[in-house]
Amino acid sequence: MAQTTIRHAEVLNKLSFEDFVEKLGNIVEKSPMVAAAVWSKRQFYSLKGFHKAACDFIDGLPINGKEGLLRCFPDLAGTLAREGRLSADSTGEQRSAGLFDLTTEEQTNIARLNSRYKRKFGIPFVLCARLNKKDAILRGLNIRIKNSKEQEVETGIEEAKKICWLRLVDVLQGEQVNIMSKL
Amino acid sequence: MAQTTIRHAEVLNKLSFEDFVEKLGNIVEKSPMVAAAVWSKRQFYSLKGFHKAACDFIDGLPINGKEGLLRCFPDLAGTLAREGRLSADSTGEQRSAGLFDLTTEEQTNIARLNSRYKRKFGIPFVLCARLNKKDAILRGLNIRIKNSKEQEVETGIEEAKKICWLRLVDVLQGEQVNIMSKL
């Protein structure tokens, strides 16, 4: 894996900023600014190095920037999903978690919890769907909704970083790879 | 105008963050995170107040964030324009500046300057096309290419703020309004 990620880093280092942003623009949902900012930090020596630079950028955002980044994520099993308006990345992620196969009761339950969550925190519930199944997601919503706003911004950001890592690997390998253990 | 912008601010204050981001997501090109971050700063009492909050957010970005923001803008009269892949906002702006009506010589000239500019600075040449015509844009490119990187990041960001203001007014008024003098 080490050799592979070095080769992938070399691919990244050779890209113009335009190709870089086009290729990696959605590693953070609807926030190409993140990849575009990280381009300034070349050279990269591994995918982990690139991911760390993206995480450092996100960590350096002011609190409303972190909230803003989270607000660009769609609800899990929400209106955009029902209307077929999710990004390709989100569609695949939500499908893998079983969120397109909810019973009517589960759908009602998650919609109610998503609404309560958004009303309480002013951000959507962000969770790495590819690392969870629908039951775990519903449990997570029920638990996290009891947290403080500060905790939820922090937790959402950490989930966004996991999503970012998996999307990054996808872009560069062209397939889903289970390398979370390397993080 | 004051009464109108207060009414517009009231409209903004009533929007959910999802509607806010959908409506204002492109006031900074391909960077919905900006509007999404500024939602945290409600209530707004005028459009200028909202615009100031957006500018404050942009000014607070680290230098690579500002560069990243600029890298999300397309070239003026560049490949995306020729291929019909500009955002709707950018299409209207570049058309108003006459950039869809260049002679072959002008097209060659601007392409050469855009390339040199990007090679020198690692960002695209960002300029508020609606406040300029093609001759002024070519002159601007010829002049600004002699600046330092620091100057160009700063100048590009100030241009992005002007673009942001005009797009904001467009979104809320549904038409182009010449109120730059109010800035």
UniProtKB/TrEMBL annotation, chains A, B:
Pathway: Purine metabolism; urate degradation; (S)-allantoin from urate: step 3/3. The keyword RNA-binding does not apply. It comes from the Eukaryota. It is found in: Peroxisome. SUPFAM superfamilies: UraD-Like. Its main location: other. It is an enzyme of class 4 (lyase). Its EC number is 4.1.1.97. GO terms for cellular component: peroxisome. GO terms for biological process: allantoin metabolic process; purine nucleobase metabolic process; urate catabolic process. Residues 13-168 form the Oxo-4-hydroxy-4-carboxy-5-ureidoimidazoline decarboxylase domain. Keywords: Decarboxylase, Lyase, Peroxisome, Purine metabolism. Gene3D superfamilies: Oxo-4-hydroxy-4-carboxy-5-ureidoimidazoline decarboxylase (1.10.3330.10). Pfam families: OHCU_decarbox. InterPro entries: OHCU_decarboxylase, OHCU_decarboxylase-1, OHCU_decarboxylase_sf. GO terms for molecular function: 2-oxo-4-hydroxy-4-carboxy-5-ureidoimidazoline decarboxylase activity. It catalyses: 5-hydroxy-2-oxo-4-ureido-2,5-dihydro-1H-imidazole-5-carboxylate + H(+) = (S)-allantoin + CO2. Belongs to the OHCU decarboxylase family. Catalyzes the stereoselective decarboxylation of 2-oxo-4-hydroxy-4-carboxy-5-ureidoimidazoline (OHCU) to (S)-allantoin. NCBIfam families: UHCUDC. This is 2-oxo-4-hydroxy-4-carboxy-5-ureidoimidazoline decarboxylase. It comes from Branchiostoma lanceolatum (Common lancelet). The gene is URAD.
